[in-house]
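During the reporting period, our protein records have gained a structure token line. One record among many is quoted in full directly below:
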Amino acid sequence: MASRALTEDDIPELLLQEDHSNVKNEELRFWLKCRGDSLKGLKTKAQLVKRVEDYIKAGRDQNIVDPDPNSIYTKRKERNEASKDSNSAISGTQRQPNFPSDGWSTDLKRMPVFTRAEMNLHIAKSGKNIDSTSKSHSVPTGVRKATIFLNDEYLKDISTASFENFFYFKSHCYHSF
């Protein structure tokens, strides 16, 4: 378990009611696990409630650790912080693109060629890494869905435009029958 400055806000299901005796055993166990408790010797609800109250009295209720063996809450917090940092990094030299109001065409041949390295860099910057065991970044679900949309003709009226070194796609997405 990684112990990285997590707060109760980082783990949505972590808040307990004032009256701990009305809380389910599973929730009490999860609350204790998030405090790094081994949960040994806790067989009854009374024991769970007493342990929770002991943590609160001792002031150890604010020491939160990631209960997941894969550290999903810590990774989520890091990804959100990195996302905030990258959003705040947009300065006067780097600006948000302006979407063109005209110049749209149905010609897909104007689309620029993207290298795999450029796509991987974009995906890495977006913070998406589906397979934590892999060192490469990928979004297979998105690619699969896009391929299905194109092959099954869910996307209609595809238009493209390029403006100020940016390339744009827009289309209508129809539901399946």
